[in-house]
Amino acid sequence: SCFTNPAVSIQINTKTGHFPHYRRKCTSCPIGGKARFQARLFISTEFKLPLSMKPAILVMHGPNLNLLGRREPEIYGRTTLADINAGLQARAEAAGFAFEAVQSNAEAVLIERAQAAMADHTAFIIINPAAYTHTSVALRDALAAAGKPFIEVHLSNVHAREPFRRHSYFSDLAQGVICGLGAHGYAAALDFAIEYLQQKQAG
Q: Any catalytic annotation for residue 76?
């Protein structure tokens, strides 16, 4: 091979930032003056942001939801929380968004995570406050302070159950409320969140 007087050309798609190829060719050679070397290296066909830099969809699960699949399956279904989160993560990341899920039986943990959304890459929140729906003014205030759009989700139809479950401290702040659809309610909320964020990105 000959590397004498190489001519290097790089072609860039100015609309996408792609580098279709990098080509290096020897234009002259001491041996007969003929090119002896030609190589083409494919560098990249697509630029992708790291997940940590992408807008994130945060899913928050309240108390006792860690028991999904075992706790009163006739009401809450047999799908586990891990299964719900895995399906949501795959869908969110396929659409180009980062994903985070947090579950806690402690009110303070959920409050602190909601507060953190004020300053991180969280762009949309899906929350099932569970029992805190009916009791937690503090978690409501944290979500209001975060200022991020959110959907309230409930696995069961709370309006067909005990009267105390029909009151929510979150519904008047939420973009929407989904209840009674089981695990499908999370998927429906995620579909809305993705469409909402995509429309926002498109301007």
A: yes
